[in-house]
Amino acid sequence: MRVIITGSAEQLAEAGCQIVARQLQQKPHSVLGLATGSTPIMLYQQLVNLHRQGKLSFKDVTSFNLDEYYLLEGTHPQSYRYFMNEYLFNAVDIDLASTHLPACLAGEDPQQSAVGYELAIQAAGGIDLQILGIGANGHIGFNEPGSSLASRTRLKTLTAKTLADNSRMFRPDEYQPDLAMTMGVGTILEAKQIVILASGAQKADAVQHMVLGAVSARCPASALQLHPNVTLIIDEPAAAKLDHADYFRQAERKAQTL
Ligand code: F6R
To answer: Residue 144, exposed/middle/buried by CB under 10 A (0-12, 13-18, 19+)?
Structure first.
């Protein structure tokens, strides 16, 4: 796993933005896997800035988001569709018809929706570049601890920890779903390239386990150790418990000289 330790949230976003921009410049028809949450917001802002400067187009991009709350319509302000429209899709030239989230609405069969999502990813040629965040409990997407490391898109029950972490997004009187449709760990591992972002001390334990802990369903992100092309971009607080952090810094300095 390539580990980039950055000095600030802005540098973290910039490092991620460079990788996405390079991908789209090399392959304008890329298939992107996208994440929501607080961490990628600045990355999306930087991509929007590049687009506004005329340096980046999303016109031929297809996207698949990791997850969506069960039964939340895309018009709901807490839905991930709403988030993506707000932070990225409506601010760039992507064709909204080419953007996908694993939504499962009232009256739809969750299993059929899940299989349909997997088939749509395959039909698009698979994901070229997947953006991920990590939960404080080591989840990726909504693959909570205990998820099979071979799992595919399905409905997952959210843990009390995830519900508490995400409750900040919901008003006290607002319904917070405790189920979400999420790509599986196996789905994520099929992406050709993965960039995972983590910021803040609350992610330090999960980062340490993901990079150097046992590959285990205890920390679903640890499955990324089995993927040949993962870049982890973190800030200093998220790196605080990472053994060998100096080695990772040294390796990055060396890479700059090659
Ligand atoms: C979001 C997602 C989640 C988040 C994770 C971190 O689509 O799949 O795995 O990436 O919960 O969230 P933040 O960035 O809010 O700390």
So the answer is: buried
Ligand 1, residue 39: give the atom nearest the CA. 14
The whole model's pTM is what?
0.97
User: In this predicted structure, what is the pLDDT of residue 202?
Assistant: 97
196 lines ligand 1 (CB under 6 A): no
Domain span at residue 165 reads: 2-257
Instruction: Give the list of residues 6+ apart from residue 212 with CB closer than 8 angstroms, or none.
Output: 242, 243, 244
**DSSP state string for 183-215:** --HHHHHTSSEEEEEE-SGGGHHHHHHHHHS--
**Residue 219's CATH number:** 3.40.50.1360
Of the candidates 165, 192, 186, the residue with the CA atom closest to the CA atom of residue 176? 165
In the chain, the percentage of residues whose pLDDT exceeds 70 is: 100
Q: Name the residue type at position 136.
A: A
Contact criterion met (CB below 8 Å) for 42 and 9: yes
- Total domains in the fold of the chain: 1
What's the pLDDT score for residue 42?
A: 98
Any ligand 1 atom below 6 A from CB of 67: yes
| Residues 28-72 pLDDT 10s | 999 999 999 999 999 999 999 999 999 999 999 999 999 999 999
How much distance in Å is there from the Cα of 229 to the middle of ligand 1?
20
Determine the average pLDDT of the residues in 215-230: 98
Give the separation between CA 188 and CA 205, rounded to whole angstroms: 22
Pocket of ligand 1 contains residue 35 by CB under 6 Å: yes
| Catalytic site positions | 67, 137, 139, 144
Residue 127 pLDDT? 98
Distance 184 CA to ligand 1 centre (A): 14
DSSP state of 222: G
Q: Quote the CA–CA distance of 89 and 79 in Å, as a whole number.
A: 14
